[in-house]
Amino acid sequence: MIGRLNHVAIAVPDLAAAAAKYRDLLGADVHHPHDLPEHGVTVVFVHLENTKIELLTPLGADSPIAKFLVANPAGGIHHVCYEVPDIASAARALGEAGARILGDGKPRTGAHGLPVLFLHPKDFDGTLIELEEVRPDLQPA
Ligand code: CO
What is the CATH number of the domain that holds 36? Predict the structure, then answer.
């Protein structure tokens, strides 16, 4: 079902400082900040050769990562994102197997404009998993 690792997301208390660290200290390809109001986060993507790092910080009052940063004030790994070719069939198969999908169970539009969903960390060894639909036939060569 799952394919490539699309990104690892790290929640950070100071997005500008984290982005500067990846750009200036680690010499990575750091993109511009991007507000995602419907997800309650601002993100900066760091493009690596084989995957991406998603630096996340809360946006708005009821951001889903605000609590995470209270528990982890220095920041920390928040989720990993795996690619799936068909998110609707992945959601169906996981639901039938008893895995819990966060929210209303329906895919939403994620940071790349593609459908995503999140799986309950209690069902996956304490790790929040994001699935993103990346259809191989729609990828640039
Ligand atoms: Co993500």
Answer: 3.10.180.10
Let me know if 130 is a catalytic residue: yes
Count of domains observed in the chain: 1
The Cα–Cα gap between 37 and 80 comes to 20
Distance 55 CA to ligand 1 centre (A): 9
Cα atoms in the 13 Å half-sphere on the side-chain side of 139: 8
**Cα separation, 130 vs 21, whole angstroms:** 25
Structural domain for 129, as ranges: 5-138
Per-residue pLDDT tens digits of the chain, which is 141 residues long: 999 999 999 999 999 999 999 999 999 999 999 999 988 999 999 999 999 999 999 998 889 899 999 999 999 999 999 999 999 999 999 999 999 999 888 899 888 889 999 999 999 999 999 999 998 776 655
User: Per the residue annotation, which of 54, 130, 132, 133 is the catalytic one?
Assistant: 130
